[in-house]
Design a protein that fits this description.
Six copies of one chain form a homohexamer. By secondary structure, chain A is α/β, with parallel strands linked by helices. Chain A has helices at residues 12-20, 43-59, 75-78, 91-107, 123-139, 158-164, 179-188, 234-256; strands at 25-29, 62-63, 70-71, 88-89, 112-117, 146-151, 210-212. In chain A, helix 4 crosses helix 5 (123-139) and helix 7 crosses helix 8 (234-256). The radius of gyration of chain A is 19 Å and the shape is globular.
């Protein structure tokens, strides 16, 4: 028997067997987006996928294929759509993808689902996709699906952040392509990280509003790294991953009574 | 420098550099769908991705992230949506995904694109997504993008098919989870294939029409294998892959003047 | 009493009476599309309508109004949208039309429906429209509608094809505006056929892929006739029509237990 | 040469020739809707099509295929969707159909278009479809298309109405399946009219508002005939048709400078 | 306790209390549209809101927030979109807004709803929004919502119109920014009316059809006042308001059994 | 002349005059949502409207009608859709409204726009609506529109927050119906605030994830007040308003060069 925590590596009878046994499914939401000159475009796919695979092992879950094209990058949280290689969907498109996948999972018997977001801007359209999917399932007579929706980076201990940022945590939005993501990539895919290319043109100094078009003095570092990536290490990535896995697993066990 | 034929493994400056140099981009279209008791759900992701990576090396191209959720499976070509683990999008959703990704590629300077379909039912909604994407690009002033769209399995020599099917080729639609796909999976991901589970309830004996709902005597093998998978081998997969890569590369070189 | 096999020629009480008695409804899907210099733009309306009317008489059915604008013509199966007079809908539009009509039929009590496609490219968006329509009907509490969906040209005996194509049948896609369609038009609407204008620039020599834009050497005959129309006759049209009517009627009787 | 005022009876070269010569195109908008026990469901297809064909002969125009499924019937103007056989589209679906057909006509060179509505409720969604179609054409660089949009029944002389309704014209909305439509059907398709079934349960006595659901005392005649059909005749239909053709032709000549 | 006939001025417990007690809700539909040089852009918001507030007091109802952006202005009934300050939604957008608000009201227990239109062109897309909203509610198991839909100006006594228009009522469509609307604004918001700017370039002399683009001789007064506003007065506004409130209240009491 | 900072209180010639002179337009985005037992449902309409009117006076701007139905309330930032009286739109609907209004403003010559959000959950769908609107305007040839998009509550001095929250600011999300909003309502609409009903069941103790459905122990105060509203005062509202107006006005002047 081919066993796997990857839903898509199972045959359909194996999938049916595990779902019938109550396995929770983790659905990672990623995107293809610039992450500075030192990181590849797939950071937001690699990281939530890696987190989900580790959590799945803890909770007896399955990881569905990661959605690789997400919602549009905004200048203040991801640099924006103008950076080469950022490939995004309209909000409605992204929400419909989430809706359809959730509807399909529900029809195939999945009753415990964790939607794990790995790209800041996906947050709201994933909420909408989830709401639309559950609405459709209710109309199809499926009313007992339980869903958690989260950003993996919110599962970190205060002490870990303090250790990582002795001078204070700059906040999630600015962490784009910075210390947290770079350290996690060094842990998971070090061959794709070029620490010698880490830029020093940050951190960003954004105003408290968006501008269209983005003015020249908007405070956006030309590198696309919004805070600081210097000092990243696989060890730090390990601290983060340990937190993400432990805290997410605990939350899932609590909510799903596992 | 991290070099890769995978678009998403590049940093944004590397991506920009390669696109500016004229690199063609291959976009694989897959899905998550039952492929019998001996194959995993990810066959239609693994195969077009594997083909694209090999073709990209031949033509100096880049492979964009594979779309992992495709259009709905139909009983006569994929077994249908009722098989556990088949996760599909509505046609409009799928077309919008293709539209948005193509629009994004166009805005980032891609002018040579090959859309490589790996799931039978994706064919028409991918045509529509492509048409919508190019329509939007024209309205955005981008009129010089060249696109090829193809099913990878159509790139095979008559002689190869004759060698594989001495008694005659049953046709593309019925080949679902059968000799061709099983052999290619044995070539690319043998650890996910369980030859001892290859069923013998085929081939399908469909009528010349669709039925909703599917009647009991519709001729659909309960295993979901529409033709015959016995006799599959990695060697046969190699014959196919050689054809796919050689013929697709030649076609791309011809159309794009490479 | 005005009696008719045309649904739209009945008054509403007559319609209600026949549906309550279990009459199956045939819904022809056509389009307005180039069919070479010798055939009118309405071939894909005339032919499925004509077939449906004859089948309706055999099975006690009703023919709903033919949808006259279908999905976009593709170069490899219909010549493409660039030919003058080809008037098509976006895929989503076409699917919504099919969805809405099916929803309406279901709400008015129709429980046996046959969707009869007469335009190659309508196939997949009609599947989607049907799926969407049945999904909505289920949500409205209507779960017992039976639907068949077919292309009329698939209902032909092997012997008939052998008689029509002594040198081998070129396949459905290439038959656009060629021997089959021309012969059927000579049977049904001979006054609209100009045999003296049958072109000789075919058959098409397409590659195994689509190209956008269509290159000059794509193998598309300038006339829009993809194979060969010489030798067409009303007699041959009669052979085809006999097959279509006999085989479709038999299939309908079988599936609907008539 | 097959000549015809029906656009869809021309071959594509003939279509191209006539459009290049400036022929205006008339697009009739119909529906499939109850019209009382004495009239068929196709009244709103037959009448605008008949008017358009006669006008086309006057102005050198072409008649495009009539859209056979229109917007939903409302109780106060058509009896409502509950009457058997009324088959309608959602407003958005109908508008998208109109949009797509107009976009197609524009891309094929049509610069003079008359959208001729034959179903009361189509009026507003046809305006929207037209607005969307012209908006898209402008974005495609086509800015010189001239369009007229009209209800054919508005083209009647005061004197004719006075002759038809010596006691006063009840107004367009209530004329559903009544004197005007019945007389025109007696002119165009008398074999589909059953004068012996003309009901006497009208006229409707509607309040000045819509109700959902329709209450029992809403004033809707059970027959679906909203005013009075007694006294209809082919002669009266002729008076109306003469007005429609003369006044519409004059208006088209004026607006398009023919 | 803050009491109010404005739904949005209540706290959620007060709202819940009143709805549980069976309060009908009035939903005014307005827009932002040119109303000549003497009236503000908000006429179609002020008037239905004012009417609804008065009716609500009569019937124990609540007034929901007025939708301030409506469907597109047409030249023959509102002057058209080209007039500065006319801010409109696509028909589908407007219908979706109406759908969503009605769905929300239904989910919160509202079972008696009156949709009160104050902008001519909103009529049909509001019907569609209502139909879509009720369809969704039915699928959510809510089948007992009663809805009335009306244009407030239809609630006027014949005698009042005769008093206001001794020479005959020109009809609703042409009354845009004319005597009725100006008089009602003088009653409700006199500080926003500039009677010295009432133009004399009307009434409009439209043909019986729409034209795109609008030709120079279309009969549209440059001021945007389609009929005549001279002679307007708050007193006349009072006559109208008295009728609107009395007749609407009576109709609501009748239909909802209050 | 009727002068006003409210766009909708101007006549169309006045609107045209001010826009031609370069007036910036402020578009407030609100919603109808529970705000605890002591505040009305219209808080998110009253507050951004009040801020915009004051800012408009500072910068010579105009305030467009506030959108009164916004995106769905989420439990962790607004209590959620289950609270009575919360009336929301689907994300796509809301984005289309924003798109259409922005497109209309652009077509009427507005080149300086500030989208002012007053409801937390509106943030992302307003970004999407803005992106869609500007995309359409570019396709219509309008490329010089400048837009700012902001949440008004982000325009506050650190010192003010320190003065308001001596024990530390709990963060924007939890401030729903709490000290900030209550104080601003006491400033703007004190008659709608019932301080004696301020609840003490907060603050919320949410986990770091969403749950569907919301579990009983989710930490959501039954009152819907997410933090603490005790201690609110009009004076504190004045401090906030002063900051909002001063900082927003300064930002607008900077970005638009006023």
């Amino acid at each position: 028997m081919v066993d796997s925590i990857r839903l898509d590596e199972l045959s359909w009878p194996e999938f049916a067997h595990k779902i019938a046994a109550g396995a929770p499914v983790l659905l990672p939401l990623g995107t293809t987006e610039q992450h500075g000159p030192h990181l590849p475009l797939n950071v937001d796919v690699v990281l939530p996928t890696g987190v989900c695979e580790r959590v799945a092992r803890q909770v007896g879950g399955l990881v569905a294929p990661t959605i690789p094209y997400g919602y549009k990058s905004m200048p203040r949280s991801g640099g924006g759509e103008a950076f080469p290689g950022t490939l995004s969907l309209d909000a409605n498109t992204f929400s419909l993808v989430v809706r359809d996948v959730i509807r399909g999972l529900g029809h195939h018997g999945v009753r415990r689902l964790i939607v794990v977001n790995g790209h800041f801007e996906n947050a709201w359209p994933s909420v909408e996709g989830l709401d639309l999917g559950l609405r459709e399932l209710r109309r199809d007579g499926i009313t007992d699906m339980q869903v958690m929706r989260l950003e993996y980076w919110d599962f970190v201990r205060r002490a870990t952040l303090d250790k990582l940022f002795p001078d204070g945590f700059p906040g999630t939005e600015l962490e784009h392509a910075s210390l947290l993501e770079t350290s996690l990539m060094l842990l998971l895919r070090p061959e794709l990280v070029e620490m010698d290319k880490v830029p020093s043109d940050g951190p960003a100094t954004f105003p408290t509003y968006d501008c269209f078009p983005v003015p020249a003095d908007f405070g956006l570092p030309p590198s696309g790294v919004l805070a600081v990536a210097h000092g990243s290490s696989a060890e730090k990535g390990g601290w983060l991953m340990d937190d993400h896995v432990a805290l997410m697993s605990a939350a899932i066990r609590k909510e799903f009574g596992l």
